[in-house]
Amino acid sequence: MSQAISSICILRLSAIGDVCHAVAAVQAIQRAHPQAKITWVIGKVEAMLLADMPGVEFVIFDKKQGKAAFKQLRAHFKGHKFDVLLHMQVAFRANLAARCIPARVKIGFDKGRSKELHSLVINKRITPQSEPHVLEGFQNFARAIGAECDAPTWDMPVSEADKQEARELLQGLTRIFVISPAASKAERNWLPERYAALADYAAAQGFSVVLTGGPTELERKLSDAILTHAQCDITNLVGKTKLKTLLCVLAQAQLVLAPDTGPAHMAVTVGTPVIGLYAHSNPKRTGPYLYQDYVVEVYHDNLMAQKGKSAQQLKWGTRLKGSDLMSQISVERVTQMFDQVVKQEQL
User: Fold this and answer.
1) Which of 156, 165, 218, 235 gives the lowest tally of CB atoms within 10 Å of its CB?
2) Is 7-144 CATH 3.40.50.2000?
3) Is Transferase one of the keywords UniProt gives this record (predicted)?
4) Domain boundaries defined on the chain
């Protein structure tokens, strides 16, 4: 499908990290098909981050509306037919949404990654890949319609006002070390006293420590516990930033520490090094893409302990369960990685 294409629909509803991965592929498509009109069906929260992205019309799918969301999607596209739909999500809800989007060609994942009726709503597949990162999977959608994408690049849509708001929040701070401590599930979070230990360690090395996160109860409780344990001064921005402002905060930071969470991938899009903490998912598949060498993980050891097999012997992307896995990551290992990154990145 490398011939002239006039209309393309992207279907990727969630989550923050995944839509960050998808942006690189979408912008590669824009370079390959500058004449094409691109429409992106996306989740409500994710749209807040990508709003005003040049050359893309966003159609918000609000999952909280239940059946009404599908009805609205069908009505929005009534009488329209895209040249191609790039169906970049295998979740059941996304597969139902794909049925509401008319397109001549509907490209989905290869058989190995298809699930939850994905195969029934597509008529073409991307090329299978060996042990791909999520981002690399999205790149194959771009390649399927003739776009070149080797090393990913991002041009994230932020305004001067977003940048100024971030500057004001960080006023007076230098050598900024951001801790974005909360994942979507509590079991994927590191221990608050250990985050605090890293905050104290970074402060002793001359860094200004900043806590970021959303307004949820989980994130507020975690940040409060970190502040209680820490001895150093910490600028607490938890619940105080919009997504675009947070992106600008991450862009102004020298280094980010985070578990498997969206802000880690947001930081990648703006070129800020990330130390990722991983226990439940394979960082080779979901880790901070440009900084996978900076991951501290216990995933592979626990995979062998729980399954008796390596990642290469199991279905790619196998996830682990357990509320105590993150506690296996020691402060010593993370401080060693901190020193390594500071030296390597000349921070």
Assistant:
1) 218
2) yes
3) yes
4) 7-144, 160-344
| pLDDT band at residue 150 under the 50/70/90 scheme | confident
**277 contacts: CB under 8 Å, gap ≥ 6:** 190, 257, 258, 259, 260, 295, 296, 297, 326, 329, 334
CB atoms within 10 A of CB 247: 24
CA dihedral 219, 335, 340, 252 (to 10 degrees): 30
What is the Cβ-side half-sphere exposure of residue 254, based on CA atoms within 13 angstroms?
A: 19
Distance between CA 234 and CA 203 in Å, rounded? 9
Mean pLDDT of 178-192: 97
Residue in the structure block whose two tokens are 């059946």: 67
- 160-344: CATH superfamily: Glycogen Phosphorylase B; (3.40.50.2000)
235-263 average pLDDT score: 98
Q: Cα angle at 319 between 41 and 260, to 5 degrees? A: 65
Instruction: Give residue-wise pLDDT tens across range 315-345.
Output: 999 999 999 999 999 999 999 999 999 999 9
**Please, which residues have CB within 8 angstroms of residue 28's CB and are 6 or more apart in sequence?**
139, 142, 147, 148, 149, 152
User: What are the tens digits of pLDDT across the range 305-316?
Assistant: 999 999 999 999
Cis amide prior to 15 (ω within 30 degrees): yes
**HSE-CB for 285 with a 13 A CA cutoff:** 17
Q: What is the pTM of this model?
A: 0.97
Cβ proximity of 187 and 261 under 8 Å = no
Residues near 172 by beta carbon (within 8 Å), at least 6 away in sequence? none
CA distance 183 to 300: 19
Cα–Cα distance, 200 to 233 (Å, whole number):
8
Instruction: Look over the chain and give the mean of its residue pLDDT values, rounded to a whole number.
Output: 97
In the predicted model, is pLDDT for residue 21 greater than 60?
A: yes
Q: Is there a common fold for 7-144 and 160-344?
A: yes
Q: Which residues make beta-bridge pairs with 274? A: 256
Q: What is the mean pLDDT of residues 172-184?
A: 97
